[in-house]
Amino acid sequence: MLKPTISELLKTSLRSILKNKGRTALTSLGIIIGVTSVILLTSIGNGLKNYIAQQFESLGSNLIYVLPGKVFNESGGFGMNAAQGLLSTSFSQKDIQNLKKNLDTVNVVIGNVELAGKAKYRNKKEDVTIVATGYEYGKVSNTIPKEGKGVWFSKEDEAKKANVGVLGADSAEKLFGNENPLGKTVIINSKNIKIIGVAEKKGGGLGAGHLDETIYVPLEVGFSFAGNRNIQSILLQTKNKEEIDLIKKQTEKIMLKNFEEDEFSVADQSQILSSINSILGTLTIALSGIAAVSLIVGGIGIMNIMIATVTERTREIGLRKAVGATPRAILLQFLFEAVILSCLGGLIGVLLGGAITQAINQFFPAKVTFISVFLAFGVSFAVGIIFGVTPARRASKLSPIEALRYE
Questions:
Q1: What is the Cα 226 distance to its own chain's centre?
Q2: What is the pTM of this model?
């Protein structure tokens, strides 16, 4: 008997699979669930990375952050005691002045304070994040109101401790609707704040939407909200990208005069972004690994069904061997069926995962990549091979005489 061609194996396998559509669907279900989950999780992970990178870009360029506590460990990731440091360490105006005095080549040095707040205008109330900062922050962070949307508070406003503020785009819309907020007074935590501008929209979703649900006020006004003069973080902007590493080292040296090494961290945007991406990557792999359990379950299901199929088709196998089919041809036949079952589940899983990704992308960043699709098909193929070998070998080793006697 001639060796069966790939096209013949495919045709025979498809005929066999399509004879029992219900069984085929149930057999592929585990693969479908596993591949869908892996596609979905990797898509969300990739989408998050891209989204966070875009958010960092929108915050400005050539930025260095001085943060309380030892935020990063020796390997560059986030430290275990980062949260403790955030609570135990704070900075002061003196620290800002020291940095300004000793760093001649930076554009700005700004202190920041963030607080939770309640905004009220007439009968409307909204939660807002109060960001108390310097007059330079608007330009540095690309938050300056567009033409016709008012202005950012000035150096004079900051010096006079003026109760003025710039509303985030979403907060302005929620509180005022179609009404022009400029010149209106909003009550923030029982304090009257005159709105002088509406900030450029940063883009919502994923927690970073709080950038649009914000009111920016002068730092001194923020101190009155907080009830103390503690500064939570310090922002520096270098004149060019090449100076970042040098300024970071100089900043650390200056800060060490008043703080212990584990009481503060100096980081640039790329360092923070790299650490976040590392965490997201690890989390995505871990969750995908959990989802991959469904693929193993699906593979076991394929193996069991194929073993049952071998038993059901024992006489057919005996007849084929009697007319000249080789054990290798029988093995390939059943192995092809297992692989097609698995890849069919993989295809449906990819399509389903892609469709769900497109749906949630309207509300949450997600992106299907070629690598994740290629990986899904590769894993599906491998599952079919691995779990199809046992039933295929069993079929190939059947004695034609005993098989023909089987009832």
A1: 32
A2: 0.68
